[in-house]
Specification:
eight-stranded mixed sheet, 2 domains, binds flavin-adenine dinucleotide, FAD/NAD(P)-binding domain, Flavocytochrome C3, Chain A, domain 1
């Protein structure tokens, strides 16, 4: 530890923060790790697969509007990051395909974040849980630490050569959701740890950080409407199978290519009337997708049965004609939707659907029909603190703010209405942050 503080202060002990902490500690740096929660882990504790795009071509194809510098760093950094996980002793599975375009590994994230905490303790670092960060400490235009309110209520000024912001995004703040994602996002369900309330955003922008990019969207999944949704449901009740079903808005129309990805459809649904829609699959979709694993090796509950058991708006129609009996209060016209499905079936048979269908362009013609009303739930935003490839926070000018780093779901620019792994993003840029701190020159005068 330096006379005047730590080499690295990490605010947020989730995937990015734990990663940076373990990397920095094993490189001999003094580290203080702060989390507002009573335990480390954040949203990482819910996650199970560390993955991203396999190469630059797929990254460019899937995420054309993402920052090219950050995209390149993620793809290039992923292999070495997985090697680092293995060397550290994390429980990492063999390489496997993830979704239709990604590649990655199963990762025991609970074991991993606990391992990172142990490494910090073994190397003599400090960990403050239940501690809130009030403000960053500035010296001129440089960040030299932060004022932290510790669990006992005392304010403590922590000095550090580098401060890493890794609070996991602003998805738990309804105001920021409404302002930065979409007005309808104010009331949507949260599918993440409850503490990512935009503190990183507030701390970094107060220090002059750029924020963006507008319109980038968010990562989330469709869930059944009208249910009380809690963290026990985050995986089981995410309707990943939507990629194989058809989704109708309150105008009784398809509005997006559902087959591309459930997380893309989730963003599109947010912008539809009342941000809700009717998801319809037939017996084939039920058999092949609603009741099977989304990612190889993952749990495979019957999503339809679960949504029904939990009191969602669900129903089974023995024929398309029976869709006319949809409850009136739901607000859809079942006869119009039945006609839309007939027309969709005819159009995919002759290869010309009016709303495109890139994958799984098969008719829904095997009764019965499984109907679930669905709404979006948010896991983390793609809008966030702007950084460079070395996790240095940048100002509007593009220049780095001395002493300030950010990684993980607090950052923006990498993903733009596209998604290729939240754990990988936090892992690769968490490592980059620690490496930047390690390779910094002589200590600044503070
Ligand atoms: C159900 C679910 C399943 C998922 N599955 C996957 C998956 O399989 N693969 C994948 O790639 N991604 C997955 N993700 C996303 C992944 O978990 C996140 O992208 C990743 O954890 C982001 O890391 P992070 O460090 O930025 O944020 P987090 O891991 O969420 O950590 C943020 C931390 O910051 C803390 N914090 C907040 N405010 C403050 C403050 N003011 N001061 C101090 N600390 C603060 C929080 O308490 C938390 O501990 C999943 C997410 C969820 C919710």
């Amino acid at each position: 530890m330096k006379d005047n503080g730590f080499d690295l202060l990490v605010i947020g002990a989730g995937m990015a923060g734990c990663t940076a902490t373990a990397r920095a500690a094993t490189q001999g740096m003094s580290v203080c790790l702060v989390d507002v929660a009573a335990d480390v882990g954040g949203s990482a504790r819910y996650a199970g697969y560390v993955w991203t795009m396999p190469d630059h071509e797929v990254m460019a194809e899937q995420n054309p509007d993402g920052d090219p510098v950050l995209r390149r760093r993620l793809v290039d950094g992923f292999g070495p990051a997985v090697d680092w996980l293995r060397v550290l002793g994390a429980d990492v599975g063999p390489a496997q395909r993830i979704l239709s375009y990604g590649r990655g590994h199963r990762l025991d994230t609970n074991h991993y974040v606990d391992l990172c905490r142990k490494i910090l303790q073994d190397f003599g670092g400090e960990i403050l849980l239940g501690a809130d960060t009030e403000e960053l400490t500035m010296s001129g235009d440089a960040v030299v630490g932060a004022v932290v309110r510790t669990a006992d209520g005392a304010a403590r000024e922590i000095r550090a050569e580098h401060t890493l912001i890794a609070t996991g995004g602003f998805q738990a703040d309804p105001e920021l959701r409404a302002r930065c994602l979409h007005p309808s996002a104010r009331t949507i369900a949260l599918r993440s740890n409850p503490n990512s309330r935009g503190d990183g955003h507030r701390l970094a922008t107060a220090a002059g950080a750029a924020f963006g990019t507008a319109g980038a969207g968010f990562y989330g999944h469709l869930i059944p409407s009208e249910i009380s949704f809690s963290d026990a449901d985050y995986v089981e009740l995410a309707l990943y199978y939507s990629e194989h079903a058809l989704l109708f808005n309150l105008d009784n129309k398809r509005f997006t290519d559902e087959s591309l990805a459930d997380h893309l459809t989730t963003m599109e649904l947010l912008e539809q009337p009342e941000a809700r829609g009717l998801l319809i699959g037939d017996a084939r979709v039920h058999r092949d997708w609603m009741t099977t694993a989304y990612v190889e090796g993952a749990i495979a509950p019957d999503k339809f049965a679960l949504a029904s058991k939990r009191g969602g708006r669900v129903g089974v129609a023995e024929s398309l004609d029976e869709l006319k009996y949809l409850p009136e209060e739901w607000g859809y016209d079942g006869s119009v939707i039945a006609a839309e499905i007939e027309s969709y079936n005819a159009s995919v048979r002759d290869g010309s659907p009016s709303v495109p269908r890139a994958l799984d362009a098969l008719p829904l013609d095997e009764p019965p029909y499984y109907v679930v009303e669905t709404v979006p739930a948010v896991t983390f935003p793609f809008v966030g603190i702007r950084t460079d490839a070395n996790a240095r926070v940048t100002a509007e000018s593009g220049d780095p703010i001395p002493g300030l780093l950010a990684a993980g779901s607090d950052t923006g620019g990498l993903w733009h209405r596209a998604y290729g792994g939240g754990l990988a993003t936090a892992l690769v840029f968490g490592l980059a942050a620690a490496d930047t701190a390690a390779s910094a020159g002589l200590p600044r005068d503070a």
